[in-house]
UniProtKB/TrEMBL annotation:
Essential subunit of the Sec protein translocation channel SecYEG. Clamps together the 2 halves of SecY. May contact the channel plug during translocation. It is found in: Cell inner membrane; Cellular thylakoid membrane; Membrane. This is Protein translocase subunit SecE. It comes from the Bacteria. NCBIfam families: secE_bact (TIGR00964). The gene is secE. The chain crosses the membrane at residues 47-70. One of its GO terms (molecular function) is protein transmembrane transporter activity. One of its GO terms (cellular component) is plasma membrane-derived thylakoid membrane.
Length: 75
């Protein structure tokens, strides 16, 4: 039986083969690859999203009002 080195964490695999230590290490590696936006980029893109949501909601409201009025005229 081979001895475990310090680099190998002593985590047990469950019956499904899931290794919690490996999962957290791989998650940490993936998060290190993420390119996080700057504060200015975050603010400007958030403002653009809010503006588009407000614009879309307004258009839907106006079209709904138009159809309500038109159905009131027909029926």
């Amino acid at each position: 039986m081979a001895k475990k080195t310090k680099a190998e964490p002593e985590t047990k695999e469950t019956e499904s083969g899931f290794n919690l230590g490996k999962f957290f290490n791989e998650t940490k590696e993936e998060l290190a690859k993420v390119v996080w936006p700057s504060r200015q980029q975050l603010i400007s893109e958030s403002a653009a999203v809010l503006l588009m949501v407000i614009l879309s909601a307004t258009i839907i409201y106006l079209v709904d009002g138009l159809f309500s009025w038109a159905s009131g005229q027909v029926f």
